[in-house]
Structures are given as C-alpha cells and as structure tokens.
Specification:
19% strand, 13 strands, single chain, 13 helices, eight-stranded mixed sheet, alpha/beta
C-alpha cells in the first residue's frame, strides 16, 4: 500500500482533487438526484414498445476438474420462466452441451454475444442476461504489491483463452446503453457482488434490513475534506483524503497506472443513465453454491430467484425481491445475494419486472 501511495503522491496535485470534488458534486447535486429518481420510476415501464432480447449462458465444464452440475439446468429453467412472461424478439443461449461451435460459451463467443445483446440499443429496449457458471478473482495486471483484484467470469475455455473481467463487462454491457434502455442481469457465480462494477449496491442484513453502499457519496465526503485540507496548506492530509476517496471508485490496480493522461478516467464513475439491475448470487468475497435441490442440480441463486418469482407472482419491489432471495438462501447457504444498480433508484418502491 505504501509504495502505491507514493506513486499517487507523485501524480496527484491540487487540481486533481478539485476536479474530483467538482465531478462528484455534479453527479450528486439535488437537480441530478431528482432527475435520477424520476428516471428510476420510469424504468418500471421501460421495455414494452422497444425490442426485447435475452442472453442465457450456462457452463458445466464437462470432464474437467472444475465441472459443475446445475448450470445448464439453470439456463433451461430461467428460459422457461422468462418466455412464459415475455415474448422475446430474440433469445440466444450458450451452453457447453451444444454441438454448434458458435453456441459454445467460449471467451470469444461470450464477448460476441454480450455485444450482440445490446447492439444498437435505443430508449425503450429491454435486455435480459443470465449467467450460471464459475466466477473468480484475478490479480489485476500492471499493479505492484497492491493486491488489486478483478471479479471475473470463466468461459469454458478460460484456461487457454482467459477469463472475462468486470471492467470489460461494464464497458460492453453498461456504458453502451442509452438513457431509457433497461438491462436485467443475473450472475449466479462465485465472487459476483460487483460483477458489472455498478456504483450502488444493496443487500439485506441478518436483521432483514436493507443496506446500501453508495461509493460516490462516501467518496464525495472524503474528496471535500481533502480539498479543504489542501486549502489549509496541509498537503499530507489532502493526499491521504484524496487517496481514500479515489480508492472507493477506482480499483487498486488502476491507482498504480499512469495518470498523467488518465485523470478523467480515474474520476469517471461507472454509472449509466440506462436502468441496469444486476442481481448477484453472493458478495465479492463469497462463493455461490452449485446445489442439489429437490432431486435436481441447480445454482442456489437461480433456484432461489425462480422460487420467489413463482411463489410471489404479484409485483414485488426490488427491496422485497432482495429480501425474499436472502430469506430463501439464509440457513441453507452462506452466500448473501446483492443488487447493484447503475444510478440512484428508489428500490423500496420500484417494482421488479422482467422487461
């Protein structure tokens, strides 16, 4: 950490801190928040009138040391549910039991399918993504002894072609979406808590209370304190505050990269005006169970989600859905499901919908 701090000390100046604060204030001022709240309520209605596409990925890793049992079952079960609710314009399924090489969940095919899913997206379009397979973490490239980690998904050929990191998925699936478009994404895999790198994360604690982690607001507080310290002439305190603020919205490995031409990228939040909802099977530091339930192999998260949606067909709020997921997994599995969203939303009142 100390070597990483020294590197930032060489590269961050007063203007960087000032720009960080101004950037954060623009994203969090009352006008912006009011627009976000209004937009989030509209997201209940996004989808109808636009195109609808779904991408389902299930990987069992047959005949390998990493073999799973329930991922392809998850895809079939999720497909049966969503098609009973919505008549999709297009659906693509990648599983490793298919003979067509274009439909196997290789790294190249998954990336191509991600791009296909959101290609030419417009306001009113609605997209659905489900992934069931291995998730992992990987040491970020280019870092020094700072142990920065990326969350990843593991294609069927991950040992030779490599994994797909969360930064890539944010770029392909989130940043390309326009305002008014919607993406529901479910990641039933280990280490999936921040798989799309979205700025707001919700979870239900052991007392059934909704908890939110808003990295941007915490970063703003630290950034303001850093700027005030800079005005007092306390460069050491300003540097410490700026380091902590940036660390909330930029991963450790990004802090150690060259910043001279990259300050805007460092301060850029991975938010989107599109309505993106990412349901993860667990927190970043947890695993998701490949389970055997009622005689069937299934991912615990996929099973819990479908159980809740079948048993409670009435419109649940996003917070209610998250609470029900937690209740179904609690006591059976240690994993804690989470919901991440692309901008500030009223999850206590917004209704869940497939489209």
């Amino acid at each position: 950490m100390f070597s990483g701090l020294k590197e930032i000390a060489k590269k961050i100046d007063g203007d960087s801190i000032k720009n960080f604060v101004e950037k954060s204030q623009q994203s969090l001022n009352p006008t912006h928040q009011q627009q976000s709240t209004t937009h989030s309520h509209h997201s209940d209605r996004s989808g109808p009138g636009g195109k609808t596409k779904a991408l389902l990925i299930g990987i069992n890793y047959f005949n390998t040391k990493a073999e799973l049992k329930g991922c392809i079952n998850d895809v079939q079960n999720v497909k049966n549910y969503i098609t009973s609710q919505v008549k999709y314009d297009e659906i693509r399924i990648l599983t490793d039991d298919q003979k067509d090489p274009k439909l196997k969940p290789t790294r190249a095919n998954i990336i191509e399918a991600f791009k296909w899913l959101v290609q030419n997206a417009k306001a009113g379009d609605s997209f659905f993504l489900h992934y069931s397979g291995h998730g992992a973490t990987a040491a970020a490239k280019g870092g020094d002894e700072d142990d920065g980690q990326n969350e990843t998904i593991c294609p069927v050929d991950y040992e030779t072609a490599g994994m797909i990191v969360d930064d890539e998925m944010n770029h392909m699936l989130v940043q390309t979406l326009p305002k008014g478009a919607k993406l529901n994404a479910i990641f039933d895999c280990c280490h999936s808590g921040s798989m799309l790198d979205l700025p707001y994360t919700y979870e239900i604690d052991g007392n059934s209370n909704l908890k939110i982690r808003n990295n941007t607001k915490e970063a703003l507080k630290l950034g303001l304190a850093a700027f005030q310290a800079l005005e007092r002439g306390d460069k050491r305190e300003a540097l410490r505050g700026a380091f902590e603020a940036i660390s909330l919205i930029v991963k450790p490995h990004q802090q150690n990269t060259e910043l001279t031409d990259d300050k805007k990228q460092i301060l850029k939040l991975k938010s989107s005006e599109a309505d993106v909802f990412m349901y993860s099977g667990c927190m970043d530091n947890q695993t998701s169970a490949d389970a055997h339930i009622n005689g069937n192999s299934t991912g615990a998260m996929s099973w819990a989600l479908l159980k809740v949606l079948h048993e409670k067909p009435g419109p649940l709020t996003l917070a209610e859905l998250l609470k029900e997921l937690r209740a179904n997994l609690h006591g059976k599995y240690k994993q804690i499901p989470q919901l991440s969203v692309s901008h500030e939303m009223d999850v206590k009142n917004m209704k869940f919908s497939i489209v």
